[in-house]
Design brief:
This protein has 19 helices and 24 strands. It is of the alpha+beta class. A six-stranded antiparallel β-sheet has the order 1-2-13-12-7-8. A six-stranded antiparallel β-sheet has the order 14-15-16-17-19-18, with helices on one face. Strand 14 and strand 15 form a beta hairpin. Helix 2 runs antiparallel to helix 3 and helix 7 packs antiparallel against helix 8.
């Protein structure tokens, strides 16, 4: 499969991955070309899910079936990789496909007794998805990257290591190849990608005959014309005395897709942490204006882009997390979640204009206040106002849930009321994404007084956990109290066993705020059921019952007063009896 020629791509979406690619292959001074190479740039959906793939292979001529082994490997990888489930990681997909190909090649070779009928080939593949490059490598073909540095120069970096042993001045032997053994050890690596990067894949007939300074100079012309650059490199390698097949591929990255989960976690592992920032400092073109918030997990700053003048929120992880891969992965995941969502009621993550030199995330700057701040100024909100907040919060939560993401830290401090009246869900630092098994969910990731019981009991949780936290928040906005045990939030926070939660008693919101309708209180009570099975099946149903009475719900106040509030009942009864006794005494005195 010697597919020479250009393969270009211009993404259909304005913020998608945009690349230009080309390849060329020649027999050179050999009678037969046993190299194989191929490029696949799929449409937008598969490009987002699977990425852009380049593959190159150099069949081992002494094995007899090297050409066929190289062709099968390239063709098989390009077709089988894109057929793997989208739920698999790039690493899982690539390694499983290559392991299957290796077993087939080895099995084919075992059918022959003659040594010259082996199916052996080198193999190197480059997958670029979002902002990460994934490399799979066996043998002595190579992948290199040309990248511009901060000084305006460039560096040509080898990204693979040859699996070969040199014997004498001119002879080398492969120590690893596809088809060599029943099992194959695949070198896997992932690295970040920047706009302007040039990736170069080649077989040894090219790179063995071109010194790195010369190759670096030749690749500088790839930005203008990748196809012409490929052809020029093969010409010069041939003139330099190459006696092997000549094959190469070039990929120019023009623009990047939004950040992916793997990209953000890769950055978290490699970028340094920032110290505390002071007003006036410049971070990658962002001028720090003020520190807005700080806690044990992170710091939040207001910054302004020097070029555009736009304001953003810049968030940095605490330096206490330096070396803590789990916490840094959570921080990176927050960046990824914010950038993959574009919803009016969820804070929006921003892709930095310049490449990050340290670990931070950017978010849209919001003018306004949290609901915790709002309630201090509005201690007696109406049920209608609170229902309006609930509607907007539920829209934001449903956007997260559609992406299989639980917020896990809904509370008044994490619901932001903008000056234009919009409510946004903020602070995604405790969120959990289904399928991200390498980032373990925390026991109680958010504030304990708002967390559903299943967190403390270490039970599976779903969207009904966010429903519970939202209901606690709404209850607090209406009453200023906690919904259980007569407002005793500490008693709820300290509950840790099933028996503890079974002892909890819901206190009607009407007790603290007589303006709360009975039917509204009944909806809160259902959403606050300690058992997830007793809550609403969906946030939409919860919202519907907050907006109008549901006859199927039995308001807590419909119970006899002595059952609803026995202490209050007896207090009122005692007061009433005392008043009767006083009135009777006064009547007797009057008669005398």
């Amino acid at each position: 499969m010697n597919m020479a020629g250009p393969v270009t791509s211009a993404s259909a979406t304005p913020h998608g991955l945009q690349v230009r690619a080309a390849q060329a292959s020649r027999a050179g001074r050999k009678a037969e070309n046993e190299d194989a190479l191929g490029i696949r740039v799929p449409g937008d959906h598969q490009r987002n899910a699977k990425g852009v793939v380049l593959a190159i292979a150099d069949g081992v001529s002494g094995a007899g079936e090297g050409r066929r082994a190289a062709e099968v490997s390239v063709q098989g990888f390009l077709s089988d990789y894109f057929a793997t489930p989208e739920t698999w990681t790039v690493k899982t997909s690539g390694e499983r496909v290559l392991s299957a190909l290796n077993r087939w090649l080895h099995g084919q070779g075992q059918q022959y007794t003659q040594a010259h009928h082996g199916f052996l080939t080198t193999f190197s593949a480059l997958v670029i998805r979002s902002q990460t490059a994934y490399l799979f490598h066996i043998g002595d073909s190579r992948i290199q990257r040309l990248r511009q540095d901060a000084t305006g120069g460039s560096t040509l970096e080898p990204l693979t290591q040859d699996h070969a042993t040199r014997v004498g001045a001119e002879k080398t032997y492969l120590t690893r190849a596809l088809g060599m053994d029943w099992q194959v050890e695949i070198d896997f690596r992932k690295t970040d990608v920047q706009a302007g990067d040039i990736f170069f894949l080649s077989t040894d007939g090219v790179h063995e005959f071109l010194p790195r300074p010369m190759l670096k100079k030749l690749l500088a012309g790839a930005t203008e014309n990748p196809e012409a650059c490929c052809e020029s490199i093969l010409d010069i390698a041939y003139e330099a005395g190459s006696d092997d097949n000549l094959s190469c591929q070039i990929l120019v990255v023009d623009a990047l897709a939004p950040l992916g989960a793997d990209d953000s976690r890769l950055q978290a592992a490699t970028l340094p942490l920032l110290p505390d920032l002071a007003p006036g400092q410049l971070i990658d073109g962002l001028r720090v204006e003020a520190e807005m918030h700080a806690n044990a997990r992170s710091q939040l700053y207001r910054v302004r882009d020097e070029k555009s003048g736009k304001r953003y929120a810049l968030k940095t992880p605490s330096r206490l997390f330096e070396g803590d891969s789990e916490q840094l992965s959570r921080f990176a995941q927050e960046d990824w979640i914010g950038q993959r969502l574009d919803h009016a009621h969820v804070v929006k993550g921003i892709t930095p204009r310049q490449a990050r030199q340290s670990l931070y995330l950017l978010q849209e700057w919001l003018e306004g206040e949290t609901l915790a701040q709002w309630r201090k100024k509005n201690p007696c909100p109406s049920a209608q106002q609170v229902a309006g907040f609930a509607e907007q919060a539920i829209k934001g939560l449903r956007a997260l849930h559609r992406r299989e993401t639980l917020h896990q830290d809904i509370k008044p401090e994490n619901l932001f009321l903008c000056t234009d009246g919009r409510l946004k869900v903020i602070d995604l630092g405790a969120a959990h994404v289904a399928g991200m098994s390498d980032i373990p969910p925390a026991d109680r990731p958010g504030a304990a007084e708002y967390a559903a019981p299943e967190f403390a009991l270490n039970l599976p949780r779903d969207a009904r956990a966010d429903q519970f936290s939202l209901a606690v928040t709404l209850y607090e906005l209406l009453t200023g109290q906690h919904p259980f045990n007569n407002g005793n939030s500490s008693g709820y926070s300290n509950a840790s066993t099933l028996a503890d939660f079974q002892k909890l008693e819901y206190t009607s919101a009407c007790r603290y705020n007589p303006h709360v309708p009975l039917w509204f209180d009944a909806a809160l009570r259902k959403a606050l059921s300690p058992s997830p099975a007793s809550r609403y099946d969906s946030l939409g149903e919860f919202l519907q019952d907050l907006q109008k009475p549901n006859p199927a719900l039995s308001p807590v106040n419909a119970q006899p007063w002595i059952e609803r509030d026995p202490v209050g009942f007896w207090k009122v009864l005692a007061l009433f009896m005392t008043l009767l006794a006083v009135m009777e005494l006064l009547w007797i005195l009057h008669l005398r």
